[in-house]
Amino acid sequence: MANKAGPQRPNGTAQAKICQFKLVLLGESAVGKSSLVLRFVKGQFHEYQESTIGAAFLTQTVCLDDTTVKFEIWDTAGQERYHSLAPMYYRGAQAAIVVYDVTNQDTFGRAKTWVKELQRQASPNIVIALAGNKADLANKRCVEYEEAQAYAEENGLLFMETSAKTGTNVNEIFLAIAKKLPKSETIGGSGSGQGRRLVESDTTAKTSTSCCK
Amino acid sequence: MYTLKKASLRIDESYLKCKNGCDYYGNEEWGGYCSKCHWERKKEARLEVVERGALKEKQQQSPLGFAKFEEKKRYQSDKKAKLLKVFAKSPNSKDRGKPESLFGPETGEAEAVHAEYQELFSKVGAKVETDIHKCIRSFYKKLLSDAENPLTSIDELSERAQNFYQILTARLDEENCYRGLSSEEKEQLIDYAEKYAMTCLYRILFCPATTTDEDKDLYIQKRIRQLNWVSAKHLDCGIDETSTEVHDLVYSSITELLGMDSTKAPQDKLGCVMRCCRKILHLMQKCVGGPTSADDFLPALIFVVLKANPARLKSNINYVTRFCNASKLMSGEGGYYFTNLCCAVSFIENLTYESLNMPEDEFNQYMSGKIIPSGTWESALIMCEGMHLINENLTIFGDLRKRHAAIMMEIEALKDEMIKFQDEMLERVSDLRENVPLELRPIREPMDIDAEDPAIADLPPPLSPQIVEERVQQPRPRSPRQDSPEWQIPSYPDEALVTVNYDIDLSDLSGGEASQADDQPMHHSLDTGSVASLDLFRTSPPPLPPSNLSLLDSNQISPSLPSPIKPLQSSSSPYQGFSSQGWQIPSIPCDTGTSCFEERSQKHLHEQGQQQLQHQPVQQNNVPAQDQENSLGVKILGNTLEALDSLL
């Protein structure tokens, strides 16, 4: 019964579990959210490809040892004026990457508020990762690695300094999230029972009714 | 600049918190309360409604008790809906066999949905189809009866629908008849169930009278109308307002968004949103010059919503949120775009001077319509329209100028030619005048005719046939007198031998009837002879004498043809009786047949002939001569035919 769903997926390997996760990108505009995703999904940076019309919604599949993790990446508008709309985006998300720009102290401050908001409003077991982007611009650095590392540890976040331009740590941060995400347990009462379609453990997932719908 | 931004940056924490003062965050949808407080309040309100309903029943005689008109309206429409439901439901009990007939007025649309998924059902089989229809039917009935109860809130109905989707999903995994289906097919089945049920229930579930959806629709519509001055710049949106390509994309995305109201199933509405958003992504890619990020996308979507001002926007959004399969709204591309649309609407609802980064008084002036910014979308549109027209006209003018130049060149060439022609003609005329000076001679034309006559008189050559005449007895005296035209007439049977043959045969055979025999050839010769002679006159008079001669030659042989006839008699001596009889027997029916025809047509022919004669008085003189000659020719031909028959 548990393995029934696996082979039925046309693109899945015989015994692989397929998990789909919703991942939200948060962060001030111009910190490189979409560049980060484009690097992760398409492996490109600044190379203009006609086929890529949008980086707002993208999907990418990552293979861990015995599971296939499918990320559904929701980009959010970073402008301050749209900040209040963010809860609509991270509702039902299983993972979030809060991005800041290492060359801009303000964006780090904003990142902190995002983290705080996520911890308070998003589903309790959401996996939050902090990404200090533009790590290749070392000479312009304003946010020290140690500072961010300490903050991340304090709040239980995954943390990496990334560079969408060079590709440093881009795949790594997504892989780390994939590893940290719960892949077999039932989903907690976050009201997002239907949001995460675990093809694998669907029967158990469906029985858990959300309490505060 | 940044400080200004900063000022607008944070919404006060207390604004986000629940109004009740519990430490949870509130939600705009729930009137600023957190979910728990909201539900409690709702429960209270419902109890109140129940109490009021009881009161209402007591004082049913006085419907004037309704203070608010809207409430009254809602009550009335409720009643109407119930009545409608009664009518819609009545046929159910009668023919339960057909699942389609269950759904009353929506039968046609439901069938269309069914037809859309025909391919799927042909793949999964009839068993699955009946089972899924059973599920849909039971859900439909349950929801309908729930909806009839005025105490059931729309949220409860929504919950029922969501439960139905979940139960159905579970059923698809557990039931035996669904085993072996791929997950794609299962998903399609769930889609079908949703679409089918919602198409049928649309009338009850869309913008129900128990909710304030309609008021919200009107509010947002008014609000968007008030905000018509907002330009792309205000929203930090990089739409290039002057490019026609971008314009077209904006228009098409607006059209897609407007189309949302005309569909019924939640998925279809979601599809409209998706198409709209894809177009926006496309147009932003054109404006930005790279893949569109959410930073560009959301402002553009807000802009499009502001410019589109879709009908019943809030109702549509609420309907989709309530009755679309929640798993679709929380994830997937459609879910993402729909979330963006909700965000855009929410942004428009809560839009303040801060969110547009402008001073408060300016914002207020814009909102009250006191000032209108110059760079609005409309003015840009008007400008562009003008530019577009100018460009179009310029190209047309360019084309016209080219053609005009070409025409002018041709005119010049023609003028030159005309002048040249005139000069040339003048030159020629003057040359001719010089070479051939004009001489005036006295008119001598009658003299000329007279002069020609003696020349004709010296015409012995036509007399040469006289030599031939010696052998033929009868035409001898006449032929010399006759001119060449008359001579052609005997020649005619030679040329049109095939057609004439029969007539000649008849004349020969019915030799006893002299009058007929005489008349017939005469008419015939007149009929055809005249035509032939006319033709021959005009076309080829010179070759005629030789043909005449040849005919005469052949005729010459014919009188001396007894020798061929003799061998006929000798060779066919045993058959003589038969041959003579057989020769006559077939001819008799022919004879009688034609004679009948002749008797009838004789007079007619005669008249015709006379008419022709009247028409051609010139030939009248020659008729008797022709007659005789023809009879002779006919006889000769008859002889030759006899000979030919015998030979055959």
TrEMBL record, chain A:
It is found in: Early endosome. One of its GO terms (molecular function) is GTP binding. One of its GO terms (biological process) is protein transport. Its main location: other. Signal peptide: none annotated. Keywords: Endosome, GTP-binding, Hydrolase, Lipoprotein, Nucleotide-binding, Prenylation, Protein transport, Transport. InterPro entries: P-loop_NTPase, Small_GTP-bd, Small_GTPase. Its EC number is 3.6.5.2. Pfam families: Ras (PF00071). Residues 186-213 are annotated as: Disordered. Residues 201-213 have a biased composition (Polar residues). It comes from the Eukaryota. It catalyses: GTP + H2O = GDP + phosphate + H(+). One of its GO terms (cellular component) is early endosome. Belongs to the small GTPase superfamily. Rab family. This is small monomeric GTPase.
From TrEMBL, chain B:
One of its GO terms (cellular component) is endocytic vesicle. Residues 214-357 form the VPS9 domain. GO terms for molecular function: DNA binding; guanyl-nucleotide exchange factor activity; small GTPase binding; zinc ion binding. Residues 547-560, 566-580, 608-624 have a biased composition (Low complexity). Residues 444-463, 470-491, 534-580, 599-624 are annotated as: Disordered. One of its GO terms (biological process) is vesicle-mediated transport. The keyword Amino-acid biosynthesis does not apply. This is Rab5 GDP/GTP exchange factor.
